[in-house]
Design goal:
Length: 495
C-alpha cells in the first residue's frame, strides 16, 4: 500500500499528507495510528500529537508557529489554528556548529564547459546585450534578434536582457542598477557583451564601464543611441566583432568544482521542504565538497530559520555579516510599516504552507549542510568557494537575477506550483511533486517527487547527471521556451 503520510522529524507535532486524505481515515505515522478528524488536502499537515494554545507547533524539528486554539491528533493543521511567532529584529549569538555531510555522492560527474582566461568556467558561450537605461530596451531587443539570426551556430545565442531603470534614480538606488548591469557584463557565460546606452541617462556608459573589471573590456563594446547615425547598424557591427572573439571558445571537460550553482525556490508547496529543497541541498553539498560554489538568497525566506545558517558561519566575520543582512532586511520591512512575516503567498498557503517559519525551514534546506563562507550584498560578485549567502528579496525574478549577477552558472529552481520564468543562466526547474511534473512537462526539467519513491541518494545522483547535461549545453525547458529575462530591485525614489 502506498505510504499516506510522512513525518520529517520524530519531534514533529505534524505529518504531511502524501495524497488527499479523508476525514475518518486511519493513517500510520512512525508506527502509530492517527484517525483523521478532518479531510486533509494533498501536501497539507495534520496533527500527530496534541498541542495546547500558545504552545509551539513543531515541523522539521523546529517551531513553525504557535497554536492559536487547541489542536488534537487528526486535526488539519493550517492557518486557522496556527499563527506566526515572528517579530522584528532579533538578537543572535555566535555558536559555531561544525558542518556535516548530508550524504555521499557515488560519482561526481564532469561537464563540458568553457574555461575562461580568468579560470572561471562558463556553461554557455553567449553574447549579451545590456541596456544602460530602459529607454533603449526595445533597441537592445532589435539588435539581439537580428544578431541572433545572423550568427546562429557560431555562439550559443545572442540575447538582450532589458529593464525599465537607469534614469530618474539617485544615490544608492542608481548605484545598485549600475552594479547589477556591471556584474552581468562580467559573467563568464557572456562570451561578449554589448552595452547599449541612450546618451542622456543618469546611468552613463562611462560610469558603467568603470564598474566592470578592466580585464573584461576586451569582450565589451558599447553604443550610445543618441550619438549613432544608425544605432541598430552600429550595434550589429559591434556584435560582429564580439562573435569573432567568442566563437574561438570550445567546450572541454571540467570537474564539478568549476560549477557555481545558485539555489532558489518559487511557488513552493507542502512538498518543497520534503523533496525538492533537501534534494537541492544535497547538490549544494556535492558541489561545495568538490571545491565549487553554491549561492543561497531570498533573505526574507530564511526568517525563522536564520540561526541554522548563523551556526554554520565559517567565522565570526561571516556570522556578523549574516546578522546584519537579516536584521537589515527586517528593518527594511518595518520601516515601510510592513510586518516581517507577510509571507507565504496565497499559492504557498493553498499548497499547504502555513507560516513564514515553515516556509523558511523548508527553504534553507537548499543550502545543504555546507559551511557559510561569505556574505554578499546585492550586486556583488562571488568571492569565495563554499556556500555564499546573497542579499536579495524573495521575488523570483529579482533574486534569480541577483544570483546570475553574482556569478551562478546554473540556477536550481524548486517549485511546487510551477512557473515558466527563466533567467540569464540556465534555470533548472525542479518539481516538488509528481503531479506538477506530469501536468507541466513544458516547464519542468526534473521531478523531485522521486525522493519519496527512490530515496535521496538515488535521486541526488540522477539530478547531478541532469545538471551535468545542462551545464554541457542541453537546453532547459525555460531556454526552449525562450523564457529569459532580468528584474532589478528598485528601493529609492523616482525623480
Amino acid at each position: 500500500m502506498t505510504k499516506a503520510a510522512h513525518r520529517i522529524d520524530l519531534r514533529d507535532h505534524v505529518g504531511t499528507a502524501l495524497r488527499a486524505l479523508a476525514a475518518g481515515e486511519r493513517v500510520k505515522v512512525d508506527g502509530a495510528e492517527v484517525v483523521l478528524r478532518d479531510a486533509i488536502p494533498h501536501g497539507h499537515k495534520f496533527a500527530v500529537n496534541s498541542v495546547a494554545p500558545g504552545d509551539p507547533v513543531l515541523k522539521f524539528g523546529f517551531p513553525i508557529g504557535v497554536a492559536i486554539q487547541p489542536i488534537a491528533p487528526g486535526d488539519h493543521v493550517h492557518t486557522h489554528n496556527v499563527a506566526t511567532a515572528l517579530k522584528g529584529q532579533g538578537e543572535y549569538t555566535y555558536t559555531k556548529t561544525p558542518s556535516s555531510r548530508s550524504g555521499e555522492v557515488q560519482e561526481a560527474p564532469t561537464f563540458t564547459g568553457y574555461l575562461r582566461d580568468d579560470g572561471r568556467a562558463a556553461t554557455r558561450n553567449e553574447i549579451w546585450v545590456l541596456p544602460s537605461v530602459g529607454c533603449v530596451g526595445r533597441t537592445a531587443h532589435k539588435i539581439a534578434a537580428a544578431a541572433h539570426a545572423r550568427h546562429g551556430g557560431r555562439v550559443d545565442g545572442v540575447y538582450a536582457f532589458t529593464h525599465p531603470f537607469g534614469c530618474s534614480q539617485l544615490g544608492d538606488d542608481l548605484h545598485a542598477t549600475r552594479d547589477m548591469i556591471a556584474a552581468l557584463a562580467s559573467h563568464p557565460n557572456a562570451g561578449g557583451v554589448l552595452l547599449v546606452g541612450l546618451g542622456c541617462e543618469n546611468n552613463q556608459l562611462d560610469g558603467l564601464l568603470a564598474a566592470i573589471p578592466s580585464e573584461r573590456h576586451a569582450r565589451i563594446r558599447h553604443v550610445a543611441a543618441q550619438f549613432a547615425d544608425d544605432e541598430i547598424a552600429a550595434g550589429l557591427a559591434a556584435i560582429d566583432e564580439l562573435v569573432a572573439i567568442a566563437a574561438q571558445a570550445k567546450r572541454e571537460p571540467l570537474p564539478l568544482s568549476k560549477l557555481v550553482v545558485g539555489v532558489k525556490c518559487g511557488g513552493s508547496d507542502g512538498f518543497s521542504g520534503l523533496t525538492a529543497n533537501p534534494l537541492v541541498g544535497r547538490i549544494a553539498d556535492a558541489v561545495t565538497q568538490a571545491g565549487g560554489s553554491a549561492v543561497l538568497t531570498e533573505i526574507p525566506e530564511i526568517f525563522g530559520a536564520e540561526q541554522m545558517l548563523m551556526d554554520r558561519a565559517a567565522d565570526e566575520r561571516v556570522f556578523t555579516g549574516i546578522v546584519d543582512l537579516v536584521n537589515g532586511f527586517k528593518a527594511y520591512f518595518t520601516s515601510h510599516g510592513e510586518p516581517v512575516s507577510e509571507n507565504p503567498s496565497p499559492g504557498n498557503i493553498a499548497g499547504g504552507i502555513t507560516t513564514l517559519e515553515e516556509k523558511s525551514l523548508g527553504a534553507v534546506q537548499k543550502g545543504g549542510h555546507a559551511t557559510v563562507t561569505d556574505v554578499l550584498r546585492y550586486g556583488e560578485r562571488l568571492r569565495r568557494t563554499g556556500l555564499t549567502l546573497l542579499e536579495a528579496p524573495g521575488n523570483d525574478a529579482v533574486s534569480s537575477t541577483a544570483l546570475s549577477a553574482a556569478g551562478a552558472t546554473v540556477i536550481l529552481f524548486t517549485t511546487g506550483r510551477g512557473t515558466p520564468l527563466g533567467f540569464p543562466v540556465p534555470t533548472v526547474k525542479i518539481a516538488s511533486n509528481h503531479d506538477l511534473a506530469a501536468r507541466k512537462p513544458g516547464w519542468i526539467d526534473f521531478d523531485a517527487g522521486a525522493v519519496l519513491d527512490q530515496g535521496l541518494d538515488a535521486t541526488t545522483q540522477a539530478l547531478l547527471t541532469r545538471i551535468a547535461q545542462i551545464a554541457s549545453g542541453a537546453p532547459t525547458a525555460a531556454e526552449r521556451n525562450e523564457e529569459r529575462e532580468i528584474a532589478l530591485w528598485k528601493r529609492g525614489v523616482t525623480l
